[in-house]
Amino acid sequence: MCILQQNLSRDKTNNQDMSRSGRFGPHIVNLLSEWTEMFAYDFRDDRMMKQLRDITQRILVSFPELRKDINNLSYNLVTKLTNLKSYEENLNKIETEEQQKAHTQVVATTDLLEVCPSPLVLAQQLTHIELERLSMIGSEEFVQAFSKERVSSDVINCQDLKTTHNLESYVQWFNRLSYLVATEITSHIKKKSRVRVVEYFIDVAKECINIGMNLSAVTRLKKMWTKVNRDKLKILEHQMDPSNNFGSYRSCLKAAMWRSQGAAEDREKIVIPFFSLFVKDLYFLNEGCCSRQEDGSVNFHKCWQMAKQISDLITWQQVECPFGKIPSVINYILTTPIYKETMLSLASYECEAPDTSYDRERFKQL
């Protein structure tokens, strides 16, 4: 269409055809603006970036008045990709520091309660980590993760190259938080200290209860749990009750989304989903619905449902964390050594000896 428009522009006798071709330029720029804003990471592929430059230059020939819009489009895209590169470099630094600490010390030399005595402050620092990592997940990463239908290379020049792994990085952080909570609990030999840590994490956040304290190495510590304040625990267990497909949690999420939409303060706009459930919902929506109708046409209802969920995530990603950042606490959370599965189980049996046949057999295997 760009080439056709340029040819028509040179031929003054085709004014009617030129008018009929419409103002396609602004429409294409709008499309490209939406694409580069929503799926910026597609353009980490040099071939995609070249095509973007080619088509915008062609548009400018016929529509020079769009230069400002195209410049803004390019600037915003480059800014996003630069921020992404910086973020990934920082992730690599954190991972390197984490590995170095794991090699030089088997367990942490201090505990989280010493580093951050206040549950409220820890919850705020976790919010910093969550919002940053959540914000860097590209919408296209979900498309890549769930799409089984690949376009063959003979149909399209730009093959689907996966160049971003921030969805996987977020899942790794999610798992690390689970094991960090369990490590902090089982690293204390004294039952009184373990009870104090458990109650501390109950106060930190209901998310920590679900992903950290449900690990078997912690749930089997019956003597410790008898001393824990069960009233606080029951409230959090109710919120994360898996019955009715996490009905209580979903009600809380809807309320948070409603609050966020009309909020004036940044802290009221924060919505951080229970990520494994969010991904599971997307997965079953993708697997449970056909991508095409019986007549071969695209199932746009399915596309709309998936787009709605990812659009909600994009809205949550835009929120700036309003709390003050404490680098020492964040560094501890992200890099302190944590027990892996075997060490965690051994630490658990150090805390309370095996008292069932299953536990005794498990302990022997370890």
Automatic annotation (TrEMBL):
Biological-process GO terms, alphabetical: Ras protein signal transduction
Q: Per UniProt, what is one Pfam family of this protein? A: RasGEF
What are the record keywords, sorted?
Answer: Coiled coil, Guanine-nucleotide releasing factor
Q: Which residues form a coiled coil?
A: 77-104
- PROSITE patterns in the record: RASGEF, RASGEF_CAT, RASGEF_NTER
Gene3D superfamilies, alphabetically? Answer: Ras guanine-nucleotide exchange factors catalytic domain
InterPro entries the UniProt entry points to = Ras-like_GEF, Ras-like_Gua-exchang_fac_N, Ras_G-nucl-exch_fac_CS, Ras_GEF_dom_sf, RASGEF_cat_dom, RASGEF_cat_dom_sf
In what residue span(s) does the Ras-GEF domain sit? 118-354
Q: Does the keyword Repressor apply?
A: no
One GO cellular-component annotation of the UniProt record comes to: plasma membrane
PANTHER family assigned: FI05912P-RELATED, GUANINE NUCLEOTIDE EXCHANGE FACTOR
Q: What is this protein's name?
A: Ras-GEF domain-containing protein
| Lineage, broadest ranks | Eukaryota, Metazoa, Spiralia, Lophotrochozoa, Mollusca
